[in-house]
Amino acid sequence: MAPIIVAQAEGIETAPGSVEEPIEFESVGGDHALPEGALQQEIQVANESHTEIFPPFDASTFPSQILWLLITFAALYFVMKRIALPRISDILEERRDRIEGDLAEAERLRQKTDQAIASYEAALAEARSNAHAIAEASRSESKAKLDAARAKVEANLARKVTSSEERIAATKAEALGHVGEIATETAQAVVAQLIGNVSDKAARDAVAKVSKE
Questions:
Q1: Is 29 helix (H, G, I), strand (E, B) or coil?
Q2: Which residues contact 22 (CB under 8 A, 6 or more apart)?
Q3: Which value, to the nearest 10 degrees, does the dihedral of the CA atoms of residues 190, 194, 200, 202 take?
């Protein structure tokens, strides 16, 4: 029977729950058996072939990683320079223009408001001045009308008083004109009762003498 060489591969992990089986190397024939050193070397090569290294930390991939890094950086730089940065610059420019426009509009509205306030105050002052002037004119006109009405009334009263005085004077003169006659008749009647009839001439002379005294 041919000899069987048993060797355990070092560093090879078995699946969970599995039983580690010895690796059997069977020679084709007794005459062709591998020497022990060659067997160990073959096992070591097999172990190294099964060792896994994280690719980014693999020194053999550094040149390709650097190349792809440069390519990616160049692509990103191109995209940022030709697309992203101009778009961002346009957005910032548009926003700045909009802000400046809003500030200019706000300043214009503020100036317009100040002008409106100034116009309102001027109109108010003018209205107050006009109202004062109108009030003064109304008072002057009312005073003039009252003075004219009072003068008219006073003149009318003066005319009426003058007319009344004239009528009174005329009536008095008329009455005084008949006093002599009345006194003469009265004297004749009294004398007739006392001493008898008296002539009209004698009665008038007596009355005139008494009036003079």
A1: coil
A2: 6, 7, 8
A3: -110
pLDDT digits (tens, 9 = 90+) for 138-167: 888 888 888 888 888 988 888 889 888 888
Residue 2 · residue 30 · CB < 8 Å: yes
Pairing of strands 4-7, 23-26: antiparallel
Q: Cα–Cα distances in Å, from 81 out to 53, 59, 75, 96, 174?
A: 37, 33, 10, 21, 135
For 53, list phi and psi in degrees, rounded to 5: -120, 135
Sequence-distant (6+) residues with CB within 8 A of 4 are 24, 25, 26
* Phi/psi of residue 151, nearest 5 degrees: -65, -40
Query: 36-45, 99-108, 126-135, 153-162: lowest mean pLDDT where?
Result: 36-45
Alpha helical stretches, state H, 50-197: 62-79, 85-194
Distance CA 203, CA 187 (A): 6
pLDDT in tens, 70-88: 999 999 999 888 888 888 9
